[in-house]
Amino acid sequence: MALSRSGSKLLKPISPFFSSAPSILSRSISSSNDSITVETSIPFTAHNCEPPSRSVTTSAAELQSFFRDMALMRRMEIAADSLYKAKLIRGFCHLYDGQEAVAVGMEAAITRKDCIITAYRDHCTFLSRGGTLIEVFAELMGRRDGMSNGKGGSMHFYRKQGGFYGGHGIVGAQVPLGCGLAFAQKYSKDENVTFAMYGDDGMGTAEWRAAKSPAYYKRGDYVPGLKVDGMDAFAVKQACKFAKEHALKNGPIILEMDTYRYHGHSMSDPGSTYRTRDEISGVRQERDPIERIRKLLLAHEISTEAELKDIEKEVRKEVDNAIAKAKESEMPHPSELFTNVYVKGLGVEAYGADRKELRATLP
Amino acid sequence: MSAGQISVPIVFRGPNGAAAGVGAQHSQCYAAWFAACPGLKVLTPYSSEDARGLLKAAIRDPDPVVFLENELLYGESFPVSAEVLDSSFCLPIGKAKIEREGKDVTITAYSKMVGYALKAADILAKEGISAEVINLRSIRPLDRSTINASVRKTNRLVTVEESFPQHGVGAEICTSVVEESFGYLDAPVERIAGADVPMPYAANLERMAVPQVEDIVRAAKRTCHRSVPLAATA
């Protein structure tokens, strides 16, 4: 079956970048919920399906919320980097900065009844599913106000009420779990879908070494697929909306999000042994997801430069406050060692390192 | 299964057990899991001497060997003799090493816990208890004769391991001693192991979930019927 290219003959690409400078006094004339149409950066590449249109409907309100949410995520990850270097975060820490468009775009296309499951680069996805900054920072620092009461750490964030199933340390283990979630949704016929996310690899094993075919969106020709610019939140939103409709009607579909992480794989990977610093700064310059939204906000005269800078300052303060509060949170109580081992302990005993010294009945 | 026609001379090596703050999916010690399987050999080096001699033996061995290292030990240095550095140095599989001789209590350990047991032995020595520390080196085949000979000498046993207690290496050692050397025991056998819970991330809970030197000291004192003040939990 031929690859179909997004209909470049049908739609003339509209440049959203006006040449006039936005005036400080002008407000967007339309109300913030009036619809605006934006074009994705590039057309979608499809495999065995008809790609969605490049034109995405949005609104001033959505643009502003994209900007704020992504700025918050960016700030949070950068702050986590400092906390790790200050040894307040231990063990593993995998940062998501650069990839914010995927979390934010996906969230805009789905509901909290749809499920998301991912691997260990999960801080921002947790946030987008309704998690709070304090829950993130307290968890990263192993304190009792953390999302998992301090017992999980960076790789183990979950939010069942938000449809977020984690948060998994073992590479690839989340994929069959995602299938399971999807099957459950299919059996209960509730018209919801699951997004099972996974990466192309860990620390820079070249894709030609790790994958039989790096054209991931074709996925060895098992299911239809779509290649998406993962640095464009609107492309992500459109693709996820398309994928949900497709999955509900025709079954599984693969979305290849062409995204980019600025940090190394984890805090123990400098991220510069398998790529050049020029590549990283190049992406930051040309494809940064937050910058894309900033340009759209300015071009559509929804916000001014000053307002956007204020939002960034606000977001920075929010993050700093959350960190300060998280630092005040205490370490978990020793009795927490024995909680949540079983759903119901039913009188089972468990032991500490010295079984004659420390034993407890599981709650 | 092939009446000996086909053998599997492979070595699987890698880190095993807890590192620091890596949480529930990255902290388990699988020595007991692998050692339950007939046909497998399971080695657990502690020092550089162990690592060099045992790995060579593993590679030369015609059977499948699981070689369990420890991430935190990668950064530790050990003194080695000229003999160890010699290119022909090799250690036998299935033989434990007596790291420190003693006469009052036998402490068995493997991997990182050998270091902890040696520290515990130092503390016990100051209190007049002479501990014999056995570095198991080989979990399967387990050197039951060295362990039993030691307990027949000291009459007391403390087993130490990082992994979960139930059906663990310590459980097998205790059983072997009770089966072979029951008459020689002057005190119940003692097991120090990881806490019977998934490894928590928070630093204070993690410390409670892995054996500490004071746990080993306390258990050894119990076997010597010394009264032990109730230790505060972390």
UniProtKB/TrEMBL annotation, chain A:
Residues 68-200, 202-334 form the Dehydrogenase E1 component domain. Its EC number is 1.2.4.1. Residues 266-285 are annotated as: Disordered. Residues 275-285 have a biased composition (Basic and acidic residues). It comes from the Eukaryota. InterPro entries: DH_E1 (IPR001017), PDH_E1_Alpha_Subunit (IPR050642), THDP-binding (IPR029061). It is an enzyme of class 1 (oxidoreductase). It holds the Pfam family E1_dh. The keyword RNA-binding does not apply. Keywords: Oxidoreductase, Pyruvate, Thiamine pyrophosphate. This is Pyruvate dehydrogenase E1 component subunit alpha-2, mitochondrial. Transmembrane segments: none annotated. Its cofactor is thiamine diphosphate.
From TrEMBL, chain B:
Residues 1-74 form the Transketolase-like pyrimidine-binding domain. It is an enzyme of class 1 (oxidoreductase). Its cofactor is thiamine diphosphate. Residues 94-216 form the Transketolase C-terminal domain. Its EC number is 1.2.4.1. It comes from the Eukaryota. Keywords: Oxidoreductase, Pyruvate, Thiamine pyrophosphate. It catalyses: N(6)-[(R)-lipoyl]-L-lysyl-[protein] + pyruvate + H(+) = N(6)-[(R)-S(8)-acetyldihydrolipoyl]-L-lysyl-[protein] + CO2. InterPro entries: PDHB_mito-type, THDP-binding, Transketo_C/PFOR_II, Transketolase-like_Pyr-bd, Transketolase_C. NCBIfam families: PRK09212.1. The pyruvate dehydrogenase complex catalyzes the overall conversion of pyruvate to acetyl-CoA and CO2. This is Pyruvate dehydrogenase E1 component subunit beta. It comes from Stylosanthes scabra. The lineage of its organism: Eukaryota, Viridiplantae, Streptophyta, Embryophyta, Tracheophyta.
